[in-house]
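Blinded run. Sample ID left blank on purpose so nobody reads anything into the name before looking at the predicted structure. Input follows.
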Amino acid sequence: MIVGSSLESIAGSRISRSIDLESFCQLQIEQLTIQHPIFFARIVYQDTLLENVREVINYAQGQPTFSQKTLAYLRSEEWLIEYPSAFTLNEISIESLASSCYICPLGYRNEKPEYIQIFASEPLSLTLQQYVKQSAVMLSKFLDIYLECGQQKAEIQLLEHILQRAGHQLRNSLGLIGLYAQNLFLGLQENSYKEQATIICESIQQLDTNLTELIYCGQGEKLKVSLQDLRSLVVESIKGLQPLINQKQLQICLPEHSTTLAIDRLQMKQVFDNLLSNAVHFSPDTGTITCSWQVFQGEVLIKISDRGTGLSSDDIQKIFTPFYSRRPGGTGLGLTIAKKIVLDHHGNIWCQNLLEGGAQFSLILPRPKCRLNP
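Blinded prediction complete.
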């Protein structure tokens, strides 16, 4: 029986890629119609990604199919006078059909009912009634996880599109600067100015390389995943900000313990660079920035907090929106890129205000399940 299966194992394998929603519903409904005396089962659900109502039906082996008129009547839901509570099995009367009819609601989605409908040649036993309710619970959980994964995928695609547009615009400007820098280099005599022009050209080339990494950041097929030490990566980001940290006389609190993550080191460093840079920028002089992490069985929860003025309600809603920035001269892409990288690592990121003052960014990343080549 599929009810005895582990939904968590399905979710952990990224259900949106390993099995599609209709196939899962078909599997569930086939399990129902092999149970005597059930001879017909129907699942109605909302696919919010496709923005339509979906239906899966199945008959027991050797059972004659319903007429189109009967199916049309079931789909009209004129018989659904009252909608019972979710995950309760309710017997209903349909005059045109002499069989026992049951409905087990999953709930409402987009103001539309989702349910399992069953026809049986005789009343269901208590054991079979419990089985149907367990199937409804399993199906409801799968729907929630599947749709969440689909929405996350759509968000990633949107972020990719935005990054590619922004990268294209930046590359055009960078190319023009590079052209003038090269002309300047060729027109100068061998002196200190020519050396400076050389440095400008080399810096532009490095920026162009970094921009290419930025444009393609977070794409699952382009992730260069290896085992990395979390604390070492955070320390590396802190070192890059050390001059400003010293200038503001900030204190950085960091755990002594560490853990290993299976990540793309370059891209995840961009995440920590951005989060720590924001924390340093918004921290008051002599303030404290706290980095911490908790290691669970399948994931790591990382928190970075400051003691600044905190976030407004508008900030919390828009902080990961492209081109939204609280920093003067900021592009508004840093946190957008950070979120995309975290999502592509199958994690999540969010922000909140602390009761004692300041803001906190939290991110969850999965722990490696098997050893990779570092």
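Unblinding after everyone has recorded impressions. Residues 1-18 have pLDDT under 50 and may be disordered.
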